[in-house]
Amino acid sequence: MGWLKRIGAVRVAGSRRPREWDDAARQRRVRRILFWILLANLLLVGVKIGVGWLIGSLAVLGDAAHSGVDALNNMIALAAIHLAAAPPDEEHPYGHGKFETLGALIIAGFLSVTCFELLRVATSRLLQGAPPPRPGLTAFALLAGAMVVNVGIAYYERRRGEELGSELLTADARHTQADVWVTFSVLLGLGLVHLGLGMADAVLAILVAAVVARSGFQILRSTVPVLVDRRAVDPERITRVASSVEGVVSVSEIRSRGRPGDSFAELTVRVHPSIEVRRAHMIADEVERRVASELHLRNVVVHVEPSELH
Asked: 188, exposed or middle or buried, with CB in 10 Å at 0-12, 13-18, 19+?
């Protein structure tokens, strides 16, 4: 019974090494995807600026500004991915993955700025009025083509984000989806303006602002819990898996943190005091293996205590 007491009753159960090669490949793929999306967004910005300048439409120029924010988001995301790819070190033993989460949070900030600007410009137009633009068929075709490209980007980015477990890609996909709605509202507004309803684009801009605000809120819901270390796994699930290992009497002091696909857990298991050290270590190793494997955790730390005799 005394052996566990003497060693301080602490056991790190084969702490799973960071999957450096998996993470490196993942980060490379995310960076490559973001780079090509950045080029596509820059092309869209150029098209929208050209169309807005040719037809004299502030709405189209505002859409170009929104696409410009998309491009800026891609640049921030590339920087965040570079920082997040750094391996764990003495000052960051849990790695640098939160830089990616922080990048997603910054994107939510840009979404809020976009929402504010849409509301400000739309309100100003409704109150003060403005000369309506004079769109032609070419302008409609270019904007429609830009919208189709954005739909493709958003779909591709969301799929790759889910596949790679990247918060940055999924957050940027939401922003791109918001850009689709902005372009759609501009097209619809220009169509109604062409029919004589000069204020239609301003009214639709307010509706688009609500869509943008919703996208930002969804990003906040997924990033803030990670940044404040909300538990990543239900303790009952960890208890159930750990208790299934033969020799475990009870499980307690369960803690978890992190984001999906990159979570950590710490727990204490109690074993019978008559069990020898070697056997206790084997039990701890099995607990670590099962919890990490079945709950998809990156790292599991197990503390061993002797159970109390009654």
From this structure: middle
